[in-house]
Amino acid sequence: MGWLGHEGSFYDDLSVRENLVFAARALERPLDEVASVVDRVGLTSRMNTTSRQLSAGQRRRLGLAWLLLRRPQLWLLDEPYASLDDEGRSFFDAMLGDVVASGATVVVSAHDPLRSAALAPRTLTMAGGRIVGDS
Amino acid sequence: MIRVALLVAAKDLRIEARSRVLLWQVVPFGVMALLLSGLALGPSNAGHSNAGPGLFYLVNLLVALLMINRSQAVERTPGTRASIATLGLDPAGVFLGKSLALAVELWTSGAVLLAGAVLFLHTALHGALVALPSVVLVLAALACAGTLYGALTAGDGATATLLPVLALPAFAPLLIAGERSFSAALHGGGLWEWWVIILVALAAYLAAGILLYGVLEES
Questions:
Q1: CATH 3.40.50.300, applies to A2-134
Q2: Is A36 in contact with A82 (CB distance < 8 Å)?
Q3: What ipTM was predicted for this assembly?
C-alpha cells in the first residue's frame, strides 16, 4: 500500500535525490531506479534541491516518485490536486492513468470530481461523513 | 536490523549536517551554560570546587533533551510518519539507527563541553581525559534511553515538558554514575563499580528499545 498526502511526505532537509535514495535503500531497490523515477516525474533539474525548497507541485511530484519506487498495488491519494496548476493536474492525471493501466488500484479523495472519467470508474460522493452518491 | 540501523543513522546525521541545529544552536547553548556555571561558582572558586563533574553532566543532559526532541521532530513533519511507516522498516533497526545518530551528536557536543569544562570550570585536563571513556558510555546510554522516551512522548503537544519528567528515572542513575566516575577520575577512587552501573544501564536501554520501539511507534 502506498499513501500520498497533500502535505508532502518526506524529510524537508534532504534533497530530492537523498530522499529517494533513502527510500530505495529501505525498499532494497537498485539505486539506478532513483534517476529513472525522478526523470519520469520531471524533477531531474531539482535533483539536489532540498524538499523544503520545492514548490507544492514539485513536492507532490516527489511524493509520486516515492510511490513509483515502492510500486504498491494500492495507492491512497489524499487531495493530490490541491495547490496544483492546470499543467500539474494534467501531469498527475497522465501518471495516474499509467498506474491504473499497470493494474494497480488507486483511491483518490478530492473536493472536486476527477477531470478524466477514465481515471474514475467508480465515484463515491460523501457529505457529512456519509456516502450520498455512488456512480 | 543492522542494515536499517545504518540507513537511519546516516539519514539522521545527514539531516543534522544539513540543518546545523547542533552546531549553531545546541552546542553554543551548552557552552554558554557551562560558562555561566563557572561564573556562578565564582572565578576564584571554580578550580577548587567539586561541582565540575556534576555541572558538566547537567549541561550534557540539557543538551541531550534538546537533541532528543530534535531527533523525534524530524520524523513528525506532516505526512512523513505515515509515508515512512509504509516503507516497512524494522522498528528495532530504526531504534538502533536513531540512537546511534543521537549518540554521535551527543559525543560531538560532549567533546566540546568537556573542553569547556576544562576551560570554564578549571577541571584538570588529565582527569577529564581519564573520564572520557565513561563520558562516551554515559552519553551512549542517554542516547538509547532518550530515543526510547522521545518516541513515547513524541506527538504529544507537551513533549518538551513530558520528556524530562518521564525520562528522569531513566536518566538519574546515568547522571549519578557519570558524575561519580568523573569525580573518581579527577580525585581518585574506584571507577569500576560506576562503569558496571553505566554498562548495565546501556544494555538495559538497548534491550528495551529493541523490544519496545515498534510498540511505541504504533501507539
A1: yes
A2: no
A3: 0.75
